[in-house]
């Protein structure tokens, strides 16, 4: 029997872009079993737009965050496989067909991950990222399909997270020794975003802290270094040089041969220099 895919698209005030995501999901060479829109409290007329798609399952909740919206969509899904897609991204026509073929080829596997094509903001240039069994590729929304029963056995998405929620989900999969089969194709069209205002940077750092504490006994020194370095650079952009120095110091001590981390730690000691290299983000941007 062919797999039944429930495509779940969370949205918050994305009336201007969600139509593209819906059309891409609808026009697949292997059609989805259903498309679910999980509206996370939009106030921009998203519901009016969705009403023109009578076959789509539409859910509405008060604003709780994208992870909550995805969990809401999953809770009503009727397909045996879940595929998530963000409302500002699109996919190629072969997206679900490639997942279907992989599932047929590896019937015992419950998670499949493919690559993506990144569209750079402003220039419109693109770059393709393909996964391999030996090299890590971040699991972006739209690049993986997961068996619904497995998703629920994991507890779904961690709703405390506003950043890195897919990576955190995959950490839990890896803890369970769940095999993740890679598909060497790039069917997600991922639009680069520069939503880097102070609010978003603080949300990102809060999520990093949560993940580091939650998985402190599991994460490798390499991953911990990367998280602390991201947090440190974010604090530089927020003008919190003391906290930036603390995170960058932790990052350096985890892998002291990484000179780029050492340089960033040094920059954090000189605010006048840090302000030039990492301009402070205004709250108006996020």
Automatic annotation (TrEMBL):
Cross-referenced Pfam families: Glycos_transf_2
Source organism, top-level taxon: Bacteria
Name of the protein in its database record: Glycosyltransferase family 2 protein
InterPro entries per the UniProt record, alphabetical: Glyco_trans_2-like, Glycosyltransf_2, Nucleotide-diphossugar_trans
Glycosyltransferase 2-like domain mapped to chain residues: 6-101
Record-level Gene Ontology MF annotations: transferase activity
The keyword Transferase belongs to this UniProt entry's keyword annotation: yes
Alphabetical list of PANTHER family matching this protein: GLYCOSYLTRANSFERASE (PTHR43685), GLYCOSYLTRANSFERASE 2-LIKE DOMAIN-CONTAINING PROTEIN (PTHR43685:SF2)
Protein's organism: Algoriphagus lacus
């Amino acid at each position: 029997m062919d797999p039944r895919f429930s495509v779940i698209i969370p949205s918050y005030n994305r009336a201007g872009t969600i139509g593209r995501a819906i059309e891409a999901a609808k026009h697949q060479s292997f059609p989805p079993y259903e498309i679910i829109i999980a509206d996370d409290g939009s106030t921009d007329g998203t519901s009016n737009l969705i009403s023109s798609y009578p076959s789509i399952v539409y859910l509405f909740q008060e604003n709780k965050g994208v992870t909550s919206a995805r969990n809401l969509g999953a809770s009503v899904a009727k397909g045996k496989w879940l595929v998530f897609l963000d409302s500002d991204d699109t996919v190629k026509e072969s997206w679900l067909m490639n997942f279907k073929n992989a599932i047929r080829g590896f019937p015992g596997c419950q998670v499949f991950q493919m690559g993506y094509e990144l569209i750079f903001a402003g220039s419109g240039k693109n770059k393709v990222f393909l996964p391999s069994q030996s090299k890590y590729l971040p699991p972006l929304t739209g690049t993986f399909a997961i068996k619904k029963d497995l998703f629920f056995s994991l507890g779904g998405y961690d709703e405390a997270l506003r950043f890195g929620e897919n990576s955190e989900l995959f950490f839990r999969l890896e803890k369970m020794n769940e095999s993740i089969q890679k598909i060497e194709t790039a069917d997600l069209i991922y639009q680069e975003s520069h939503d880097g205002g102070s609010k978003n940077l603080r949300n990102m750092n809060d999520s990093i802290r949560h993940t580091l504490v939650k998985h402190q006994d599991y994460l490798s020194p390499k991953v911990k270094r990367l998280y602390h370095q991201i947090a440190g650079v974010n604090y530089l952009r927020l003008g919190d040089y003391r906290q930036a120095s603390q995170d960058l110091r932790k990052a350096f001590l985890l892998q002291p041969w990484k000179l780029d981390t050492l340089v960033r730690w040094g920059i954090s000691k000189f605010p006048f220099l840090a302000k030039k290299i990492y301009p402070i983000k205004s709250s108006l941007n996020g």
